[in-house]
Design goal:
It is built from 15 helices and no strands. It is mostly helical. The C terminus is likely disordered.
Length: 353
């Protein structure tokens, strides 16, 4: 019993981890967008952008942490980002020395916070589950009958994909186990996305609502993280596009991710040693924002996510050559983002051994 109580106490720090990555995701996206709004064609919108996000920093500064060190580092990062935005609002340009100094300070505070957080909130702090075991636990084949698994592989490549999708949906309707239902519904939605070039009017909404039903419904299964990522990526692609100058509604996407996180947190109150639950929660909490200047030069992060999640290559090849023409500020922010991602991946590899 004491062991279980100790685990419950330890799990309270999951909220600290969620707060840290909420701050990191928000501030990183804000700084990247500030570079965009500092451009000549968007400069008239810069004061409003800064005012709005200064208020967001004030809100983040009010987050409460259990761990004092985390609290100190997180609030320092928030305050330095707020100072950067305040200086940028009244500056002549992004290259002003005061603005650049504030940006460097914010970047340094981000590094300090994330180095500490990645070490403190690694998965092994909360559960002995390793990456390989987690992957095995959520493997979709075990939640399909053998005949359904073979059927899915054959249906994926059918030209009459509407009929194929309907067959997959009928498989879903015949399921009662939550994981089996989630997998069947993901199979249906994924097949629709593979054929997005042939969608008719209204089919985009149907597919989005399907992913939303998997991610945000009040039932427990192992696929809320995957469904949220696919919903977010597709929502961005359909409604705003994948260009670097597209509107990116990260605040909305993050508010939506808190729905399954809250549901998982409630389950963890009852099952504090459930390793799959803990892993799903941390994956949702720590997954990065859709960045304007991400891993794909010439498009926002949704391009890379479409490639990773659906193996779809969007037709943005003409923009791939822009790397050499990018301002140094954009090149620096790409580099900084990749550094944090590498640290997080290194941490996960270490915990998976």
């Amino acid at each position: 019993m004491s062991c279980k109580n100790e685990q419950k106490e330890r799990l309270k720090e999951l909220q600290d981890a969620a707060h840290v990555w909420n701050i990191y995701n928000t501030n990183l996206a804000v700084v990247q967008s500030s570079i965009f709004y500092s451009s000549e064609k968007m400069k008239e919108h810069l004061p409003g952008f800064c005012d709005y996000n200064i208020k967001r920093m004030d809100s983040l500064d009010g987050l409460v942490f259990l761990n004092d060190t985390t609290s100190k580092l997180a609030k320092r990062y928030v305050k330095s980002t707020r100072k950067y935005l305040l200086l940028l609002r009244n500056a002549v340009s992004l290259s002003d020395s005061g603005v650049q100094t504030a940006l460097i300070n914010a970047s340094s505070d981000m590094d300090t916070l994330m180095i500490y957080a990645i070490k403190r909130y690694g998965i092994d702090r909360f559960t002995p589950l390793r990456k390989e075991s987690y992957i095995k636990a959520i493997a979709k084949k075990q939640y399909r009958k053998a005949e359904d698994d073979a059927r899915f592989d054959s249906l994926k490549y059918r030209k009459d994909w509407h009929n194929a999708a309907w067959e997959l949906f009928k498989i879903y309707e015949g399921k009662t186990d939550p994981n089996e239902r989630a997998v069947a519904l993901l199979d249906y939605a994924d097949l629709c996305v593979y054929n997005l070039d042939h969608w008719k009017d209204g089919e985009d909404t149907i597919v989005l609502n399907t992913y939303a039903a998997i991610a945000f419904s009040y039932d427990f299964h192992f696929y809320k993280y995957e469904a949220w990522r696919k919903w977010r990526c597709l929502y961005q692609y359909i409604n705003y596009g994948c260009g670097e100058d597209a509107f990116i509604f990260n605040k909305f996407y993050d508010n939506k991710r808190f729905i399954p996180m809250q549901y998982l947190a409630e389950h963890l109150e009852k099952e504090p040693t459930d390793s799959i639950l803990i892993n799903e929660y941390l994956l949702l909490a720590t997954h990065g924002p859709l960045l304007r200047y991400g891993d794909f030069n010439g498009g926002n992060e949704a391009v890379a996510e479409m490639r990773e999640l659906f193996s779809i290559e969007l037709d943005l090849k003409a923009k791939e050559i822009q790397q050499k023409e990018e301002p140094r500020s954009i090149q620096k922010t790409r580099k900084k983002t990749k550094q944090v991602k590498r640290r997080q991946k290194t941490s996960r590899k270490r915990h998976s051994k």
